[in-house]
Amino acid sequence: MSTSFVLKSSVRCFGGQQNQYEHYSDTLNCTMQFSVYLPPQSCVGTPVPAVYWLSGLTCNDQNFTTKAGAQRVAAELGIALIIPDTSPRGDQVPDDAEGAYDFGLGAGFYVNATEAPWSEHYRMYDYIVAELPALVEKELPVTQVRSISGHSMGGHGAIMIALRNAGRYQSVSAFSPIVNPSDCPWGQKAFSGYLGSHVESWKDYDSVELIRHGAAQIPLLVDQGLSDTFLSEQLKTSVLETVCQEMNFEAAIRYQDGYDHSYYFIASFIEEHLRFHAQHLFD
Amino acid sequence: MSTSFVLKSSVRCFGGQQNQYEHYSDTLNCTMQFSVYLPPQSCVGTPVPAVYWLSGLTCNDQNFTTKAGAQRVAAELGIALIIPDTSPRGDQVPDDAEGAYDFGLGAGFYVNATEAPWSEHYRMYDYIVAELPALVEKELPVTQVRSISGHSMGGHGAIMIALRNAGRYQSVSAFSPIVNPSDCPWGQKAFSGYLGSHVESWKDYDSVELIRHGAAQIPLLVDQGLSDTFLSEQLKTSVLETVCQEMNFEAAIRYQDGYDHSYYFIASFIEEHLRFHAQHLFD
């Protein structure tokens, strides 16, 4: 086992550096890549707070990095962007037998799998919550002041992780999140595979259930496009609205007319999300 | 031959629409795709001026569309972005025998080929100057007030086309342009293939030669990264500087420390380029 931490590429972007790193993950038992945007402030040695970005199904660390246009605002605000992959990777990592896009590689769902053969590698929850930030905060000019955001499956991951780790994140936001994975086809397929049929255990990874069971307040912003073809069957934003109202959990849940599920939607509103996080990161 | 003009996709982006179209090009004798960003102003029916973007080697209409982050500024300024492909396309279009990245498909170099077998399809100069704007201005809420910009091979295309068509464009800009294709390996390979060995004919497609022979002044902005690995052998920005000084041709030629040849460089400065064009488009 190697403990190497290697800079794979480094490109100037908005006065900072867009970097990609490779390391061996003890949590996931495989070699992982992730991307980091270091704003100009951190490139001259000043540690900066970070927004962790969790991507959606089929993505790796490159989708957000190349398409969201987040670096411009991160550079202005002095925020690092930490962009992990969405699942363990490598030839030794099991994948869905039929290569489905919504299970296995590219679809880790940010849980710690308990079922064979997934449990040896599919531990994205621990990777995102513990191993990756410990590595980043040790090796890079990034502080322990964190916020978290994500898209679709990654929106589920961001909200769920923030709700379960009170005090570890200053704020959370999401684009088009899967808010109630226990009750939608994508989530049920993933949780059945990774966590097995004991549905009680699914609640620990379900944002709606976590709020229903009294999760502590954290600043939360959600944007959902009204032309998103996944809204009614998979994302079900209204279920999050309802439970927030029932539990008196404050959340800014916004519907955006005409926007779909794509990175064009993320690009259109990422500035507002980063400014929202900055309010709390620099509080 | 079909004369169809089909909307292939339309996605909301920064309050406007990011569209992709398909049409049969009489100039290129093949079916072409191109992308257009229509800002909010044009979506309610007000025709807007346009910036034409010419991409570099290996690109199609998607690279700039997904990676440059230009839509945000175009939406604010009320400018349409017209983003064509970089060569004719399709099974019937001849390609480099070895599938080289710098000749044939994806590498049209914005010339009208005179040599067989290229001359039947590789007529990107006429496509960009005449057929595409005529189509766009007839079918879309876009005026005849145009500027033009591009990257690398597309930076060559933008400057060369603007210099040869006085009055047709209000301004021109380029990132990392090939300024003197007659005197660099990329340009010599392409011009030899498309135009043949009569090097005198190459000068009509060479920005440095066009300025040397008295091209009329047009507002020109160039950004070139100093960590661009193609700078010394292929791009040779200093040759453009020299001929501009010799000919008293005004140009803002800027060197950007630490930036490479990638879309991260374009994303970092596209706002300044669009604001430069807006000054002249709305003059």
Structure description:
Two copies of one chain form a homodimer. Chain A has 283 residues and is α/β, with parallel strands linked by helices. The first copy, chain A, has one domain: Alpha/Beta hydrolase fold, catalytic domain (Rossmann fold, 3-Layer(aba) Sandwich). Chain A is built from ten helices and nine strands. In chain A, strands 1-2-3-5-4-6-7-8-9 form a nine-stranded mixed beta sheet, sandwiched between helices. The longest helix of chain A is centred in the C-terminal third of the chain and has 19 residues, at 263-281. The first copy, chain A, is globular and about 50 Å long. The relative contact order of chain A is 0.14. The mean pLDDT of chain A is 97. At the A-B interface, strand 1 and helix 10 of A face strand 1 and helix 10 of B.
Q: Which helices and strands, and how do they pair?
A:
Two copies of one chain form a homodimer.
Chain A: E1 5-13, E2 16-25, E3 30-38, H1 40-43, E4 48-54, H2 61-67, H3 71-77, E5 80-84, H4 124-139, E6 142-151, H5 153-164, E7 172-175, H6 185-195, H7 207-212, E8 220-225, H8 231-235, H9 237-246, E9 252-256, H10 263-281
Active site (chains A, B): 152 (charge relay system), 228 (charge relay system), 261 (charge relay system)
GO biological process, one term (chains A, B): formaldehyde catabolic process
Enzyme class (chains A, B): hydrolase
